[in-house]
């Protein structure tokens, strides 16, 4: 019998070695203790998922929970993106009246399962998010600080006085130790993105990374993206009055007193210092009455989840009887938050995620145990954004243009002022950008380091209400390219 040509032998040997390498790699990947084999109700997918805990303080037994979805295609070549949600609503009265902004909401429940993650809960099942950001990157969602979501501190005294500095330090330690779990991502292009109070979390964490890299370079930070962020308390909050008036939610008379007699930043400061003045109380009562509890302050054009609003209304006003049926738009499930709460409180889901409840009886979207230092809200972070740009870190600020909580007008003003202070020239003049054959929003860029964009028709949580447009923006951000000028 003739021997096969030598080239064939070499090729067969190479194939055998390749199969062995792949088999070994696959075996080691499946052995990872944090790997999620399958989430209950999940459709079949090609990418891997991981979730679990990283201890950030052994002495006080403090651990942060994460969920990690690798990129759908070729994760080894895609960047790593850390996503941080910020705050939202901290008490029932505030939920219905004002849209309070408060630190302590879940990046897993909001970011991963309601916005830009691979799945969204629907009844007992998970449905595929066709515009998930893991189409473009490896997405890491962190529940921070401890006390948020599944993250916890055994020493519960920690919850009583948490502030921005503590959160930033814990987030830095988390990333350092997460790289020990996933060494293949150390040195990978790294971006940080987030929204809301992440306007504090993201710049402060990035600042610590830049400082740490001066001693030991382990963070290959390539840029940060901030969605409807709190960057400067007075500018951001006081832009609400004009936004509400321009969208017809308050009258001319109310706009006048909301702008002069008691602006929103004064009202919030007085409220949390326990010194609410009669004039501010009257102004806010009038604003609340006109805007209505049945308008979502995070998207003034989006329908509300009637079942949630009615249950909250009943808690405030038991005599209130309404028969309005729940309305859910065809494209957007406005009750997705309720569905997420139900899903993440299932024991089989918690088991699959390697998650546990510590010190609380239920998983909640926003923390019920955390007492965050409110005064941190008044400390501007726009100056930190400026220092990051000076250090060579590109920054994108984007705004869902239907958000009245942190309106686009305040963010745009702050970005323009910062560009002027840094001496950055306009490189992309204010113009429209496109997603498909429709206008996706407006954008302006300064130098190659700072840019601003709106997402047309989007809420405070832009990837939730405008997923296609948000994905286009995200892809351009990762690639360092201007948003599409044509279709």
Automatic annotation (TrEMBL):
Name the Pfam families on file. Peptidase_S10
Q: What is the protein name for this chain?
A: Carboxypeptidase
Q: Where in the cell is it found?
A: Secreted
Question: Which residues constitute the signal peptide according to the record?
Answer: 1-27
| Keywords, in A-Z order | Carboxypeptidase, Disulfide bond, Glycoprotein, Hydrolase, Protease, Secreted, Signal
EC number(s) given by UniProt: 3.4.16.-
UniProt similarity note: Belongs to the peptidase S10 family.
* Keyword Signal (UniProt): yes
List, in alphabetical order, the GO biological process terms annotated in this UniProt record.
Answer: proteolysis
Q: What is its main location?
A: secreted
Q: Which GO terms fall under molecular function for this chain's record?
A: serine-type carboxypeptidase activity
A GO-annotated cellular component: vacuole
Functionally, this protein is described as follows:
Probable carboxypeptidase.
């Amino acid at each position: 019998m003739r021997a096969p040509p030598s080239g064939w032998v070499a090729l067969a040997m190479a194939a055998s070695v390749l199969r062995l390498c792949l088999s070994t790699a696959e075996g080691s990947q499946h052995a990872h203790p944090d790997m999620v084999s399958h989430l209950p109700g999940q459709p079949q997918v090609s990418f891997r998922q991981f979730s679990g805990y990283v201890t950030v303080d052994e002495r006080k037994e403090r651990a942060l929970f994460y969920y990690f979805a690798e990129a759908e295609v070729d994760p080894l070549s895609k960047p790593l993106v850390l996503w941080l949600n910020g705050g939202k609503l901290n008490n029932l009265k505030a939920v219905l009246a004002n849209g309070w902004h408060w630190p302590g909401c879940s990046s897993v429940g909001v970011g991963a399962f309601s916005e830009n993650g691979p799945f969204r809960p629907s009844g007992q099942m998970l449905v595929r998010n066709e515009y998930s950001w893991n189409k473009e990157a490896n997405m890491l969602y962190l529940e921070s600080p401890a006390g948020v979501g599944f993250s916890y501190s055994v020493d519960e005294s920690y919850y009583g006085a948490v502030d921005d500095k503590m959160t930033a330090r814990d987030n830095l330690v988390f990333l350092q130790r997460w790289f020990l779990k996933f060494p293949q991502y150390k040195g990978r292009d790294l971006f940080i993105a987030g929204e809301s109070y992440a306007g504090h979390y993201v710049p402060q964490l990035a600042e610590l990374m830049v400082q740490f890299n001066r001693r030991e370079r382990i963070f290959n930070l390539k840029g940060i993206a901030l969605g409807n962020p709190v960057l400067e308390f007075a500018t951001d909050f006081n832009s609400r009055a004009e936004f509400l008036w321009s969208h017809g939610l308050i009258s001319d008379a109310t706009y006048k007193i909301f702008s002069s007699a008691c602006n929103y930043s004064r009202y919030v400061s007085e409220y949390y210092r326990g010194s609410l003045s009669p004039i501010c109380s009257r102004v806010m009562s009038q604003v609340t009455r006109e805007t209505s509890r049945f308008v979502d302050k995070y998207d003034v054009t989006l329908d509300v989840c009637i079942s949630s609003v009615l249950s909250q209304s009943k808690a405030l006003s038991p005599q209130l009887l309404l028969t309005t049926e729940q309305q859910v738009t065809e494209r957007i499930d406005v009750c997705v938050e309720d569905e997420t709460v139900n899903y993440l409180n299932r024991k089989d889901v918690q088991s699959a995620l390697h998650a546990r409840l510590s010190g609380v009886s239920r998983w909640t979207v926003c923390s019920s145990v955390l007492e965050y230092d409110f005064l941190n809200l008044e400390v501007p972070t726009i100056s930190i954004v400026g220092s990051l740009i000076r250090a060579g870190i590109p920054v994108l600020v984007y705004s869902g243009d239907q958000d009245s909580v942190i309106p686009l007008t305040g963010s745009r003003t702050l970005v323009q002022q910062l560009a002027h202070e840094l001496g950055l020239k306009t490189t992309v003049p204010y113009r429209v950008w496109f997603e498909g054959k429709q206008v996706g929003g407006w954008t302006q860029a300064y130098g190659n380091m700072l840019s601003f964009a709106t997402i047309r028709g989007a809420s405070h949580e832009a990837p939730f209400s405008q997923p296609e447009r948000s994905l286009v923006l995200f892809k351009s951000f990762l690639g360092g390219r201007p948003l599409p000028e044509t279709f």
